[in-house]
Automatic annotation (TrEMBL), chain A:
Domain of life per record: Bacteria
Any one Gene Ontology molecular-function term assigned to this protein's record: kinase activity
Any Pfam family: DRTGG
Annotated keywords: Kinase, Transferase
InterPro entries: DRTGG, Ser_kin/Pase_Hpr-like_N_sf
Chain coiled-coil ranges: none
Protein name as annotated: Serine kinase of HPr protein (Carbohydrate metabolism regulator)
UniProt keyword Kinase, yes or no: yes
Organism listed in the record: Sedimentibacter acidaminivorans
Gene3D superfamilies: HprK N-terminal domain-like
Domain DRTGG intervals: 41-107
Length: 110, 142
């Protein structure tokens, strides 16, 4: 799925102007980086409220497909810059992690 | 028995409290392993181990070094810091136990999963600690 399609379906704000195919092997919700590191896998969508630049280090190491920052948290400029460098799409939602996860589930992503 | 000889060592200096570039060494290690054709499953294990080791140095030590040693049949991550050492290793190995300060936890660190994660994804795990520093040697078989 294209990143703009995902944004449209989930009513997300796309924080990067990049055109990318997003592979979705699964979804992980988590804010503790070590737990995410251990549980999330390649081509997973990662839903979090963390916005610090180190989020991008975790995403890169795991080959995360994209990040959805929930609860309308403000994403720091250096985090966006790093996301751009790495080519990892990052989105923002006004909704909760649970609401976004439910929508992904309704889309057939288990 | 033929001794497994060291093919290549990648070394990195890790700076205390540097949360901005933290993860860069692990990312570099990942790129190097990918370039020499290591399989994705092994790369994932090493990425988890090196990231946790790197973050431990950043959060808990005065600074240190991270090495990634490539052998024919194994990859060894060596992590050595300049102290202050771990007073109770058994406690530090307990999932959920953390001494990370509050400001660091707010950024998502300090889950108390660092050392347990390192051990879980390794084939061999050695740790020793004194006031002068902590040394962790982790082996992943290829």
């Amino acid at each position: 799925m294209k990143n703009f399609e995902l944004a449209k379906k989930l009513d997300l704000e796309s924080l990067l102007e990049i055109d990318k195919d997003i592979k979705v092997e699964g979804v992980y919700v988590g804010d503790l980086l070590s737990v995410v590191m251990s549980k999330a896998k390649a081509d997973y969508i990662w839903i979090t409220i963390q916005t610090h630049i180190n989020v991008m280090a975790v995403a890169e190491l795991l080959d995360i497909s994209c990040i959805i920052v929930v609860e309308n948290m403000e994403v720091e400029a250096d985090t966006l810059q790093k996301a751009r460098e790495l080519g990892i799409p990052i989105f923002k939602s006004r909704e909760s992690a649970y609401q976004v996860a439910c929508k992904l589930n309704n889309m057939g992503i288990k | 028995m033929v001794m497994d000889s060291l093919i290549k060592r990648y070394s990195y200096t890790i700076t205390r409290n540097d949360f901005v570039t933290a993860g860069k060494s692990s990312s570099d290690i990942k790129g190097n392993l990918k370039a020499i054709g290591i399989d994705a499953k092994t790369i994932r294990k090493i990425a988890i181990i090196s990231y946790e080791a790197e973050m431990n140095i950043v959060i808990h030590s005065m600074g240190g070094k991270l090495h990634c040693d490539i052998y024919e049949e194994k990859i060894v991550i060596v992590c050595e810091d300049e102290g202050p050492g771990i007073p109770d290793i058994d406690k530090a190995m307990t999932e959920g136990f953390s001494t990370a300060p509050e400001n660091v936890r707010e950024l998502g660190f300090g889950a108390g999963m660092g050392l347990p994660n390192i051990k879980r994804y390794s084939d061999e795990f050695k740790i020793s600690s004194s006031d002068n520093g902590t040394i962790i040697v982790v082996t992943v078989l290829i």
